[in-house]
Amino acid sequence: MISLPKNKKILFFASHPDDDVISSGALLYQLTKNGNQIISIFITLSPKGVNRNISFEEKIALRKNETKQACQIIVAKPIFLDLDKPVFEINQENKEIIINLLKNERPDIIFLPPEYDAHSTHQKVNKLITQTIKQISLEEIWYYETWTPLLKPNFIFFFDDELMEIKKTAIAKHKSQIERLDFIKAAVGLNSFRAAIGQELLGDFGSKYYNNQKYGEAFFIEKYE
To answer: Which of 34, 112, 123, 194 would be 216's cystine partner, CB 3.0–4.6 Å?
Structure first.
């Protein structure tokens, strides 16, 4: 039985400014209520994802402002690394940035996208972080799902309408992204799917189980040694 962490420092590595709230908004909010310190690390700002007729600099400012508002909802501290200037690469310079960040923050737990995520930037973030975490001591790594559902989650955070409304409010702060794709609908759909059949993935297929919650966020938790 996996229980939620308490009084831990948690770094959430997000490839893009909205990945934290889309994938894990309900859990992150609950974790802050459990006394955990949540820091969302935004690897890129992805200004090209803003489909508005404004300057490049205005797109960057817009995404940062939206992200700060979303982080206020889930009570997370945002840190912007801006590693996509001009293009995000896995190189020694970026590795040093991550190593210094990890050494300064000394997290107990980190969140990462899985290596098989359909989005190429998510894959690169996974590789960048996994190549640098040997520099510190960690308790756990939590892999989350955004574009690609996890193949074999070993923990599902079930939650109710109240937490879903908080999550939806946080996602909605990313107005420039909602304009081009309904990420709220996507998150509700995935979380409803996880609540409906997710428990069976954690046990024996064909077994009978009861879950009175409407939503679930899925994770694969890896004990780190």
So the answer is: 194
DSSP letter (8 states) at residue 129? H
pTM over 0.90: yes
Which residue is associated with the tokens 């690897």? Answer: 43
pLDDT digits (tens, 9 = 90+) for 33-42: 999 999 999 9
Q: How many domains does the chain have?
A: 1
181, two tokens: 């794709």
Strands, E assignment, 43-150: 77-80, 109-112, 140-144
Residue 192 lies in a domain: yes
Q: Can you give the pLDDT at residue 210?
A: 63
Does residue 83 carry a pLDDT above 70? yes
Whether residue 68 is contained in a domain is answered as yes
Give the CATH number for residue 191: 3.40.50.10320
Q: Name 5's Cβ contacts closer than 8 Å, sequence gap at least 6.
A: 31, 34, 36, 108, 109, 140
**What's the chain's average pLDDT?**
92
Instruction: Provide mean pLDDT across the span 94-120.
Output: 96
> Domain range holding 87?
9-223
Q: Are 44 and 83 in contact (CB under 8 A)?
A: yes
19 domain-assigned: yes
In a domain, 1, yes or no: no
Task: Count H helices and E strands in the chain, helices first.
Answer: 7, 7
